[in-house]
Every structure is written in structure tokens, then in C-alpha cells.
Amino acid sequence: MSQGAVSEEVSVEIRDDHVALVEFDRPPHNYFDAALIEQIADAYDELDGDPACRAIVLCSAGKHFCAGANFAAKNPAEGGNLYEQAARLFAAKTPVVAAVQGAAVGGGLGVALSADFRVASPESRFSANFARLGIHHGFGLTVTLPLIVGHQRALELLYTGARVRGEQAHAIDLCDRLVPADRLREEAIGLAAEIAASAPLAIRSIRQTMRGELAERIRAATDHELEEQGKLFATADFAEGVAASAERRPAQFRGE
After folding, report:
1. Residue partners of 220: CB distance under 8 A and separation at least 6
2. pTM higher than 0.70, yes or no?
């Protein structure tokens, strides 16, 4: 087993079973920005070139997997850099299993859906809450969400911003395995180890066939998503959505 740190916020541990744990830690809710996504992508790049790693578990410290971008702090799109870094996650060559504890909300859902598989617990919750904030969705959900749950279900989740708990998420394929919270990371490692036990050259070849076009599709989708977000950042509805979320009250949208 070997371990190291990409940065103060991202660590890497390679286990003897050829599974690497990539853990990010930005307390208290693991909000991300372009820098954090870049650090995760850098870890993936290094692991792609390490023969000791055949599968990755993407995990995070704390109560929540990732609460998305911090809309209250600044413009989370950060120009095109955030989404360029996001596309790098999809360009990785090594299969990824996400261990999703607590919330995967907004862009945090996008991070979870960048993985090949998701393991969750009944206490996990997923939400594409963008419309409830008065903003267009991002992080490539245009591509990933319909691929995973189907077009109609994706529309429902994007239009309503509904919170989906672990059991329902499992029923609609938003997560692939559902286990008790205290076994979540163990199960994610177990699934990654199952993948790592297969022939590594074959796995990479199969993954390229099945997912190799995703990075370019994500780049095209996020170009459009960013453009739409730019239009909506200046609206009164977006300001109201962010304020209502911070104040934990229903938003009063006016369509302006």
C-alpha cells in the first residue's frame, strides 16, 4: 500500500488490491471550485500512468460527498476553467467508483455522475437543484443524467430539483449499489476491487469503447451550459434563489 497527497485537499492511497482511493476534503460541505476539480483530475492523470492502480474509488471526508459549488461566495463557473477541468475527469482511463455519503447536490451531483458507478446508503441524497436556485444546470449533467436515469426522469429531476434519497436513487439507477452507511466506503472499495481483478488492458479497452467519447460530449455540453448560466446569473430570480437557499425559505420567483 502506498499513499501521498496531490494537495492539502486531495490525497491518494493505492491499496494492495490495485484499488486507489482519491479522497477530497474541503470542510464543512466539500464545496468545489476549479482548483479542487483540477486537483482530482491531476490525481486521475497520475494514477492512469501507475500500473499499481487498476480502479479508483472517489470519496470525500465529512458528512456530505459534495454540496456543489458555493453560489453565495462567487460565480462558480469561473469562466471556462471549471468545466475544462471537469472534462478531464471524463477523459481519465481508469474506472472510477464514487462513494456517495450524505448529499451530492447541484454540481456535486455532477461530480458523482462523472464516475462509472455510484455506491450510496439510504441516508444519501441526490439533487439537481439548479432550477430551484434560478440557474441552468452544469457540470455536464446534460449528458450524464439522461444516460444514467433516462431522458424523461432526467427532465423531471432537472425541472423539479427534487431531493432523491438513497432507496429511490437506487430504484432509478442513480446509484448502483445501496448499503448501510457504515459499509458505504467498504462496498465501494469492494466493487472497485472486482473491477481491478479483471484483466487491466481489457478493462481499459472496454471502457474506451463504452465511455471514450464522453469527454468531448461533456466539453460541448458544458460550453452550452456555461453560456446559459451566464445569461441567468444576472437575473433577479437567481439572486432570489440564492438568498432563499441561504435563508432556508421557499423562493419567490418572479420570472425576471
Report:
1. none
2. yes
